């Protein structure tokens, strides 16, 4: 007789794999730790395989767990797609999500894809701007949710995680070795003043080679190895790579990635988007981040 895998247990397993622990996974799933642990145990017993390596300080996947993860994602995605297509969707309308352009990758495309599966009748308007402008728009009610990059978090906000700033340039680029150091920034970039201060403190001469309001101009210039810029570790897009400078450039500060949601965010649509954003940023590679307390 054919056996059937329990989708709830698979969902718990994927959540544990994504966020690196049972405690965080239980929060995302709105389950108790013991419930998540029990589901994982039942899954292991049903497959006759140990899926999690619990011998270290954290939770890691075993070889069997890594093999199962891809299958589990596909099964859950298909399950969610079927439910979205075959059941009546009560939620319609539109929401506006504001995201600084420099933290769009890699999380936001995945979040938007999953949100479209969960709420196919809800249109998402993505607004990309710097943190200052997004907070102004949010205060005027022009955005339902925004992400920001800040030194701290303002009242009403939620800090998702803390990431270090790193130097980035063109793949295989060499312009970072030149002096004065050629930089590319938007005038209102929230990272700009701190980076310039760090260079000054290190006694490194610099030249603002690209100073443009157009983020595309900055990105193309860096991708062409005409200048360097800084991004949050773990959010580097496909055009750039982290510069392995071996101490030739100064270490930079850390910034918090914060989430602000409108007061009406208790409705399932906005809370669903907020949950996906939390899970997306918490699933960044462990080596790239220090989690917010």
Description:
With 293 residues, this protein is α/β, with parallel strands linked by helices. The chain has two domains: 80 residues, Winged helix-like DNA-binding domain superfamily/Winged helix DNA-binding domain (Arc Repressor Mutant, subunit A); 202 residues, D-Maltodextrin-Binding Protein, domain 2. Helices cover 39% and strands 22% of the residues. The chain contains nine helices and twelve strands. The strands form three sheets. Strands 3, 4, 5, 6, 9, 10, 11 and 12 form an eight-stranded mixed sheet that branches. It has a two-stranded antiparallel sheet with strand order 1-2. Strands 7-8 form a two-stranded parallel ribbon. α1 crosses α2. It is globular and about 70 Å long. The chain starts with 6 loop residues before the first helix and ends with a strand. The C terminus is likely disordered.
Task: List its traits.
single chain, 293 residues, alpha/beta, Arc Repressor Mutant, subunit A, D-Maltodextrin-Binding Protein, domain 2, 2 domains, eight-stranded mixed sheet, two-stranded antiparallel sheet, globular, disordered C terminus
